[in-house]
Amino acid sequence: MDTNGNLILKLPRESFDAQSDGKDNTFIILISKENNEPEDFVQVEYEEIATSSDYRTIRIPLEEGDKWIEVIGTYVIPEFGSIVIIILVVAISSAIIISKSRFSVRYN
Fold first, then answer.
1. N- to C-terminal Cα distance for the chain?
2. What is the pLDDT of residue 36?
3. If DSSP states are collapsed to H, E and C, what string results for the chain?
4. pLDDT tens, position by position, 17-36
5. In whole angstroms, what is the distance from residue 47 CA to residue 7 CA?
6. Which UniProt keywords apply (predicted)?
7. For 38-89, how does the pLDDT look when each residue is reduced to its tens digit (9 = 90+)?
């Protein structure tokens, strides 16, 4: 970033949120000026602008030179749904069964 400013994020609760016991919890905001290595990040404060049952809107102050931003919550929608996991288990099981039946040694 070339100048100071603010980043405003409207985060949908169904895919990304920070809650504990059904109550809103704080997000953890980390910013790095150098690179995407864990030791380079510094936690910064943010302002919660608006809250509804569907969204949380936050304002993150940015400074000149900020390059990487991480927003950490307690809930993130998984990349793989349960159907993908089921398909993966069926595929692996099928491969094991087929390989055992093709290459099994038959004893007389």
1. 75
2. 81
3. CCCCEEEEEEEECCCEECEECCEECCCEEEEECCCCCHHHCEEECCEEEEECCCEEEEEEEECCCCCEEEEECCEECCCCCHHHHHHHHHHHHHHHHHHHHHHCCCCC
4. 888 888 888 899 999 988 88
5. 11
6. Membrane, Transmembrane, Transmembrane helix
7. 888 999 999 999 999 999 999 999 999 898 999 988 776 666 666 777 888 8
- Tokens 């993130």 — which residue? 76
Percentage of the chain exceeding pLDDT 70: 81
Measured between alpha carbons, how far is residue 26 from residues 40, 44, 91, 97 in Å?
22, 12, 41, 48
The residue extents of the domains of the chain are 5-77
